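I am still getting used to backbone structure tokens and would like to learn alongside you. Label the sequence line and the structure token line clearly, so we can match residues to local backbone shapes. Would you write everything just below, so we can both look at the same thing?
***
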Amino acid sequence: MTTLLQITSSITGDNSHSTTLTNSFVARWKAANPQGKVVVRDLSSHSPHLDGARLQALFTPEEQRTAEQQAVVDYSDELINELRQADAIVIGIPLYNFGIPSTLKAWFDHIARAGVTFRYTSNGPEGLLPNVPVYVVSTRGGHYAGGPADWLVDTFLKFVGYNNITNIYAEGLALGEESVAKAVTSASSEIEALFA
């Protein structure tokens, strides 16, 4: 069965442009893959940030872990398994104060595990996750395409093995109704074109 993993990261949920656009992507994907399965990971509802205790748990050998540490590793494993089982991934990312939501960064932190999702070789780091298509839907109040937030997301995805990344932007969302309509229409058209 073909599986799409949908990652949402907006704190405003279904009221956000990033979630609305990723939902549109999912609807088009489901129409193209009627037997497909969609797995949703909503980072706004639960995405613990990495701290000293969680980091220690990830580095503690399995036979030495406490129950609490094992729960941390189980959570990380669950996120990684969702990625391994996906045939395509769509990520909705709003821009908050010039950066990605902290919950999305926390998701990155629980996924980046040496020997599990990447490894270092004599030729540099090598990603270990399957190289499936990743669609990144980015929404911003101003115009920031190609800036630091994009660099972080694309760099991380490539680091763990994803090299087939498509960026879709809806920008200028804080610049009035006309700008919003233009941005959403443009992003929606890009999504439609992917399934044409």
